[in-house]
Each structure stands twice: as structure tokens, then as C-alpha cells.
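Hi there, hope your week has been kind to you so far. No rush at all, and the record is pasted right below.
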Amino acid sequence: MKNQLSQSGLSRRQFLTRTTGAVTLPILLNGIPLKAFDGPVLGELFNTQSEADRVLVLVQLSGGNDGLNTVIPLDQYSTYNSLRSNIAIPENQVLSLSSGAGLHPSMGGLKELYTNNLVGIIQGVTYPNPNLSHFRSSDIWMSGSSSDVNWSTGWIGRYLNNQFPGYPEGYPSATMPDPIAIQMTAVVGLTLIGVSGQSMGMALQDPETFYNLVNGTDVPTGDLPDTEYAAGNVEFVRDVQSKSLEYSGVINTAADKAQNIAPYPADNDLAEQLKIVARLIAGGLKTRVYVVQQKGYDTHSGQTVEGAPTTGDHATLLQQLSDALLAFQNDLAALKVDDRVVTMSFSEFGRRPTSNLSYGTDHGTAAPMFVLGTPVQNGITGHSPDLKDLDNGNLKMQFDFRQVYASVLSQWFGADPELIKSILGEEFSQVKVIKGSNTSVQSDEVASGVRFMPVAPNPVRGEARIQYTLTTETSVKIEVFDNLGFHVQTLVNEHQGPNQYTIPLSSTGLPSGTYMVQLLANGLRLVQPMVVVR
């Protein structure tokens, strides 16, 4: 196998790093097996039994989704129909969302979610000087770059690198014993690649691989390529990802803790992927980001059936997407984790407003993005694309996709402006994607009289700010613990009145590592992680 890998210019170590992240690292803490430190103090401090961090699920619609037949511009229906008369959705069959826009008739599930205030639609998303190549445009969306530069790291990978510095060294750890991110494909894509070229997550090849993993059965080998070289590489991939994973145990444990409650549609690959995601989230896995994929959106021909524009390949894809998202959201709600999860769709580009003679559409530019979940700002942001004001036959941009990324990083993950700027390369104005605050679910305790914000800056290289708000008079105690659960120092221990408080914390004298800042007030115990870097 070593010779086979070297023939492709990829060392075994590089292969492991890029495809699965730190999956071969033992679960150690300071060189000692983590199990040696297991106990009520450590478990309580790090909240290992009930994870409350926010989760982002990215749904990639591969191939370039036709936005105009997904969100139909009812306020410009005549122009829409004239541009694509052979594939236009009949006006009386559009699922109306407002006087200006409606959904493809196959998207009844998404319409139900929209009616229940669980869907935000952002119109006209693309980027300046868009590239119409599948590969290049996909790289742009996954890396978060502008069209004139090539980045080899992903936007989420860079964010996760900041949150888990030094990865994969030192992971799994007491504070993060689980995969940081999971992608439901054979290998981890560019979205999750970190600043040193390492994967910030792991790949679960497909639903079958997952079920074989949790059921303890072998991965089937009947579909291996005929050639010895190719078969050896596939066997190696599968061996790495389903047998040698240090993370397989925690995934199995999470899967055992929760079972799906809501029904999922049959013969729907996206639904199968989301079914797994829901199960792992509800099972307590601390994974922050999941990436799933639906293929087939490159609809140059056969997008609709001649004489029946509500049927065809695109209608099938949209129904599968809509049904999968409805089942997933219903399952999250039934499992009581829906307040922790936001789902966002993206595709490398939209299609041209003018159809072709093959009952399809060619590569275009702007298209809508969907953001779903209990916490999202529901409704439509932006307006229907102006079909009488095109740019070289393509739809004009209303929002840069990096505005949406910046909004998710800020409003959902609580990233500060400087961090977002460093991740995306420049500052982008935001759109409203999340209803509430931009702190973690665990910290959002305003209704109980206490709000504990994330430590900033984080990682800490000098002095950090501990910030919290009290709406009632109460006794407050704030302490710092190291990653073994030992007390480091007490920052506050007094009775305080309603106010906003900022407490300085110097990292001088603290070794590099992960710490937890604990706030006790009003009968609550709130915890924020802090990483000290030298």
C-alpha cells in the first residue's frame, strides 16, 4: 500500500491528514489516557452529558441550482414566462409565499416550514465577476475567496482552526472528544480544510458506511474496482474511515443514545444523510459543523418534461430536497434539539434566466439561498431578481455569498468582527439570518436574569475580557479551571446589582491549553471555554 500511495505523490500521513483529520490520534490528555481523569468533577465542568453548542448543517446542491424555477418571481411572471416559456412553472401551480414570490410546486415540505416561520430565503446571492466553471466556482464558494484569488483552505475550516487551535495535535481532548466536523462524502472537501492544509473534520463515506459502523458490520467489498491499484486504494480509504477511526467509538455511542423519531422519505439519499445528522446531534455528539450533499443540479437538458413543466429532473431534486429538510426539521423538534441547529443550503451558481431548446438551463450566476431552523429570521430578504435588467444575460447580484457567511459566523457562532474579517479576507456587511443573540445557546440565559458572553478574544495571547449581564440582583462567583478540572483562580465572588460587567483576565503565567470559565449566579451554572496560546 505504501508504494501505491507514493505513486500518486501522496504519503500515507498526508492522506490521513487530508481525508480524516486526526482520526488516528489516541484519546489522550497530557499524555495520559482520558479515561484516567473520568469522574463527576470533570464531567460536570466540561458538561459532557449535555452539549449545548450551536450546530451548523451545510447542504450543498451540487451542479448549480436553477433559482428561478425554485423561487419563482410572481411579481414578474410575464417576463419570467417569456424568457423560459418551455420550462416555466404555470402561475396557478406556484406555491405562493408572498405577492412577489412562490416556490416550485414540488416543494410542499419547504412551504410548510416557511408557513411555520422556519425558513429564511436570501435572494440573488452570488459574487462579483462570477466564474461559471463548476470546479472553480465550487472552490470559490467553499473557500470563501473572491473570484480573482485561489485559496486552498475553507471558510469553515479557517473558523474551526481558530476555535480549535493546533488541530489535529492534542485532539481528541477533554473539551473536544468528538469530531469537530463531519462530511457525508468519501473525503473531506475544501470547505473544512484548515490553515495548515489539514482537514478540520472527518468523512463518513455514505449512509451505508455509517450504519455498518454503528452496527459493527464490515464495509462491503463487492463494489471494489477491478484493478489491483485502484482496489487497494479504496480498501485503504475504507479501512481508515471505518475501522481505524479513533472517533468511531464516540460516533457509535452517540448513535446508540438517540433514535430518529420523525419519519423520513424513502429512496432519498439526502434524507438518509440528514437522518444520520439528527441522530448524532441528539445523541450528544459535540460536532459543530455537518456537511451533506445532493447531486444532480446541472440541468442543461431534461430539467422539465416537454409539455409538463412541473415534472422532470429538477422537480424530482426539489421534492427530495424539500421532503428531506421537512423530515429533518421535524425530527430535530421531536428530539428537542431544534433550537441548537441551523441549516443552510448553497450551490456553486444559479442558471441563466433564458432556457435552452433542450428543456434545460445553462450555467448562470445569482440564485437564492435557504436558511432553516427554529432560530432563523424567517421570510424573504431581498427582492425577486429584475428580469428586465440583466448583466450579459445573467441575473445581477443582490448579496455577496460572503455576506451570508459573515452573518452566520457572527449571529450564529458569535464570532467577533476582527475574526470574521481575518477568515473572509475583508469586511462584509451582514444580513439578518438569526432572530436572537449571537452567543451560544448555553450562554443565552437573559430570561433567567443572567447572560454570559463568550470569552473575547479567544484564543487568548495576553488579556481576555469576561463579559456578563445581570438583570436582577444576585450573588456572582466566577472561577477559572484548567483542562483537568483543577481550580486556577477566582475572578469574582460578591453580590452584584443589575448591570453589564466586564472583568479583565490576564493569561500571564498560564500555560498554553484549554480552560473553562465558570459563572455561578441566580442558581445557574454557565461555562465558557477559553484557549491560551503562547
About this structure: Residues 1-52, 219-225, 235-244, 437-447 have pLDDT under 50 and may be disordered. The chain has two domains: 2-63+117-300+319-424, 442-532. The first helix runs from residue 2 to 7.
